[in-house]
Amino acid sequence: MISLFPLPRFGGKRRFDQLSEQEILALAISAEEEDGRIYALYAQKLQDAYPASAAVFIGMAEEENRHRHRLIELYRKRFGELILPIRREHVADFYSRKPVWLVENLGLERIREEAQAMERQAHAFYVAAAGRTADAETRKLLGDLAAAEAGHVRKAGDLEARHLDDDTRGEEDSAARRQFILTWVQPGLAGLMDGSVSTLA
Q1: Alpha-carbon span 87 to 110, nearest angstrom
Q2: Rounded to whole angstroms, how far apart are CA atoms 170 and 191?
Q3: Which of 60, 104, 119, 168 has the lowest CB atom count within 10 Å?
Q4: How far apart are the C-alpha atoms of 47 and 60, rounded to whole Å?
Q5: DSSP letter string over 145-188?
Q6: CB–CB of 135/78 below 8 Å?
Q7: CA 120 centroid distance within chain
Q8: Residues 30, 86: contact at Cβ < 8 Å?
């Protein structure tokens, strides 16, 4: 069977199809918490240079936090106060997130692309999780969250429309290109020139 979340398998990890409903809910809670934290860190990173894009990510972080609260409420109702400490890295065939430091250093457009990939992966997770759940209330919530994640691309578009008009986005994109040149291209060219001078010497 082809895994929905293809990752290398390591000893000691559970597969997604081996998780109980309690473990699936706990995993969803930790995943929403991590995604919300990632969006908040993106917003913090972008705040000074790209405040309009930062506002978009603040809105996305708030949305993830609302999802987390809905999941926690249902988890408490079904399984009590103690939430199992299960995270993405505990599941062998579950999707992972790229380190924030790796993405944020690649610039504004790369951050936007990563956010879109995050929403697609979250949608796929909730679809798979709902399909493995027998409890009607849990299945409904997971299905609702799958629909919400699918709608997040549209939601992000709505947030961008609110905070990023064409002129503002053009200004931020131009600033991002200038920053990329200053951060990566010019130092690289300077290094090549230094190497050429050393060779000639």
Answers
A1: 25
A2: 31
A3: 168
A4: 14
A5: HHHHHHHHHHHHHHHHHHH--HHHHHHHHHHHHHHHIIIIIHHH
A6: yes
A7: 9
A8: yes
Q: What are phi and psi of 154, to 5 degrees?
A: -70, -40
pTM above the 0.70 mark? Answer: yes
Partners of 14 in the β-ladder? 91
Q: What are the residues facing 91 on neighbouring strands? A: 14
DSSP lists the bridge partners of residue 146 as none
Amino acid letter, 77: K
For 53-75, what is each residue's pLDDT tens digit?
888 899 889 999 999 999 999 99
Three-state DSSP class for 91? strand
The kind and range of the H/E element at 81 are none
pLDDT, tens only, 95-109: 778 777 777 676 777
